[in-house]
Amino acid sequence: MKNISRRSFISSSTALSAGFFILPNLYGNSPNNKLNIAVIGVGGRGRANWSSVKNENIVAMCDVDFNRASKGFNLHPNARRFKDFRVMFDKMGKEIDAVIISTPDHTHFPATMIAMELGKHVYVEKPLAHNVWQLRTLKKAAKYYKIVSQMGNQGHTTNGIRLIKEWYDAGILGEVKEVHAWHGAFNFRPNFYWTKPESFPPPEHKIPENFDYDLWLGPASYRPFNSAYHPLAWRGFYDFGNGMLGDWSCHTLDAPFWSLNLGMPETVEAIVPNPMTKHSFIADQSLTIFKFNSRGEKPPVTLKWYEGGEKPKINPDWGIEKLKGSGMLMIGDKNILITGGRPDKPKLVMPEDQWSEFIKNAPEKSIPRVANNKPVDEWINAIKTNTLPGSNFNYASDLTEMAIVGSLAQRFAAKIEYDSKNMKITNRPDIDAFIKEPVREGWSFGDRLF
């Protein structure tokens, strides 16, 4: 790792002083125009991602849990295996063209920064990073190193999200000043997506065999292992994830963020009936209210995010009788749009005959579509055509930043006043300290350049 940091810093500093960019080698090591891909995070979401690159060469697979990674290892017996991605890059940096990163939120940043410093294209699961400083740094680094970047929020590749933006741009919704999004109640149970430890602070459990817990912690402060952290439920602990909001808003809020050009909120207030602030754990219920200023001719917007089974109170004027378990509403002064938790099946709230007539005469499709609606496919194609996918880091970092500011309000059950230009929470210095979190020795990246 020391070799990686020193080498990348020297090459990057030289490029900066000379005023030119280091261009990645797209296919230098790949026969038949295939990319050599390294996978960091083999099980879980990792498998869903690397399974989409069957026509490329997977040359390396890295996972801190060899038990969960075993199926991937068996399917790719010729790929070299690692537990530490720093070692992988040190030993195989010249053999890798692109990297797929599907690890817990708190380790996205170091893996991505090393990859970009070495000129590798990167695909990173959502949310893009764990704090605001990391997001801003990834955005700058992706532009500086001229790599092809993509965040894995699948909804951004769908036909549905393009329809939403096209309809809004065509004036179908009219002025939108109000957005609502909601998700169902948490189902806390052992070995599930959301798990509560038996007590707080979580008691120490035996570390599973073939699992390197210290590497899993990565930049996070050390704490005794508990089975609630790994493999599934780390998202509920704010030291590792960003809760439901950080996880699902990259799907559910993607369409209004893109269509309305929301940018960053001026204030975010989290109303949390039973906060778990002492233990940095998600609360059973919360309502998070984002306030966005006007953007040019677009009016201010209030966005409300409901968690834990709470839903918007239905306004009789909306023409809606019942809301499903999760979804999103954009309230326009001409029409109301509704989706599920993902933006893939949007619909206008109107009688069925009017809806059928609208679909027959819908606005012209002006945004290019993505074949197969798969973000990994879009990323691979972008690498080979020297273009950028839709959820590249320039866009993805902004979408994730909005979500993470909301997660900070939830974490501390607070109202936040956010100065996005200066990357500061102005009214709560104690929360502002989490804009850039401290990291353990050996896990600091990006500081020298950005």
Structural class: alpha/beta
Helix content: 25-40%
Strand order of the largest sheet: 13-12-11-7-10-9-8-14-15
Average pLDDT figure: 92
CATH T-level topology of the domain at 2-154 and 376-390: Rossmann fold
Strand % is 15-25%
Q: Tell me what the CATH architecture of the domain at 2-154 and 376-390 is.
A: 3-Layer(aba) Sandwich
Q: Per the principal axes of the C-alpha atoms, what is the gross shape?
A: globular
Mind summarizing the main beta sheet? 9 strands, mixed
Q: What is the CA-based Rg, rounded?
A: 22 Å
Unreliable stretches, pLDDT < 50, 5 or more residues? Answer: 1-31
Beta strand count: 15
End-to-end span in angstroms? Answer: 20 Å
Q: Write the CATH homologous superfamily of the domain at 2-154 and 376-390.
A: NAD(P)-binding Rossmann-like Domain
